[in-house]
Amino acid sequence: MKILKLTTLFFLLGAIIYSPLVDAKNLPDILELGRESRSLLVQVNTQDAEAYYNRGGTRLGSGDVKGAIEDFNQALRINPNYADVYSKRGNARLLSGDMKGAIEDYNQALRINPNDAEAYYNRGGTRLASRDVKGAIEDFNQALRINPNYGEVYSIRGAARFASGNVKGAIEDFNQALRINPNDANAYHNRGTARFDSGDVKGATEDFNQALRINPNDAKAYSSRGTARLGSGDVKEAIEDSNQALRINPNDAKAYSIRGAARLVSGDVKEGIEDFNQALRINPNDAEAYYIRGSARLGSKDVKGAIEDSNQALRINPNFAEAYYIRGAARLGSKDVKGAIADLQKASELFQQQGKIAKSQYTLNLINKIDNR
Mind listing the pLDDT tens digit for each residue in 208-258? Predict the structure, then answer.
């Protein structure tokens, strides 16, 4: 009966709007009828949880996160066991930055419907964003038990595995994601990143090429390919990729860093440092950018600037062994021998802990040379 009433009402409204008989004389009556009709619509829907759910979804899609949450709240007052609403409100809360509230909503959705693969996927993504990598992987595993062909889950589980240090498992997940969807540019990009990390520079470059064939406007893929090309010694091509990334996105801090590193390698120290300046204006929390700029400053005999950059890198990442090494070298250049040895000893300890045995030994040898002066 409700559907029939609504259909009749919409038909009447349509007839009024499009009727050639409408003129200025009867327009006030028509407007009044429209107001009455809208009032009737509200009355019909006030107890309809699905109507609030649908309107919340529309609001969420248009960017009205606050309005969406209000609609989802109302839907849950009417029907407290509406699992899909909890899941959608979780998405809205996540967009508003409320990760704790989002996880609570996904928990509730899964209590009501423990076979909701999408809710596991969303909760896993939220856990990953909040750095609960182990919990995220467990959620992705569960989603794949329910739906073994959920390509997006393989892709994001690959990212979680990569974050946990399981590079091989990450690559396997990206492979599976690409079997399901061979046009997934993000999966190619992520697999390329994992391959580069494992030392497969050629395979990484091929993946970035494929990502760019699918999406030629992906600034991140250009930046990543620039990184791979720089790693294989193709300095000119690395600069070209960075330039292309910056044409697409002038605020791509990574592209400035890659171009800066390539320029330093090519001997263009001034322009290289300027690129790192720009990268750090965009992202002032990039410890590696401070470290590389500090290294360049040390190389150009700006000892004070090198120490300042190393200090900043170590504020961001207190376990950055390379930054201790550069600061130690800079302190040595400023004749602060005691401070230099302390930094180099710390660098050697961290290199040892991080499995960088050759670097640790090299640093110890440098300390011995200083002591034997």
Answer: 999 999 999 999 999 999 999 999 999 999 999 999 999 999 999 999 999
Residue 84 CA from chain centroid, whole number: 25
In a domain, 345, yes or no: no
Burial of 31 (0-12, 13-18, 19+ CB in 10 A): exposed
Q: Angle at the Cα of 253 (from 267 to 305), degrees rounded to 5?
A: 55
User: From CA 31, how far away is CA 37, in angstroms rounded?
Assistant: 10
Q: In this predicted structure, what is the pLDDT of residue 47?
A: 67
- Tens of pLDDT, residues 99-122: 999 999 999 999 999 999 999 999
Q: Which residue has the higher pLDDT, 37 or 372?
A: 372
- Residue 48 is classified by DSSP as -
Residues whose CB falls within 8 Å of the CB of residue 245, separated by 6 or more in sequence, listed in order? 219, 220, 222, 223, 226, 252, 254, 255, 258
pLDDT over threshold 50, residue 25:
no
Residue 152 CB partners (closer than 8 Å, separation 6+):
121, 177
The residue type at 319: N
Q: Provide the domain count of the chain.
A: 2
Is 240 part of any domain?
yes
In a domain, 171, yes or no: yes
The distance of Cα 252 from the centroid of its chain, to the nearest Å, equals 13
Q: What percentage of the chain carries pLDDT values higher than 90?
A: 86
> Do 56 and 42 reside in the same domain of the chain?
no
Only one residue has tokens 């423990």, namely 114
**Does 176 lie in the same domain as 136?**
yes
Q: Establish if 231 belongs to a structural domain.
A: yes
3-state secondary structure of 113: coil
Residue 23's pLDDT band (boundaries 50, 70, 90)?
Answer: very low
Q: Specify whether 110 is located in the same domain as 12.
A: no
Q: Are residues 249 and 151 located together in one domain of the fold?
A: yes
Domain region containing 13: 7-17+28-46
Q: Which of 193, 189, 153 lies closest to 173 in space, CA to CA?
A: 153
Which one has a higher pLDDT value, 32 or 252?
252
Are 11 and 121 part of one and the same domain? Answer: no
Q: Which residue has the higher pLDDT, 33 or 326?
A: 326
- Same-domain status, 169 and 296: yes
Rounded-to-integer distance, Cα 71 and Cα 269, Å: 56
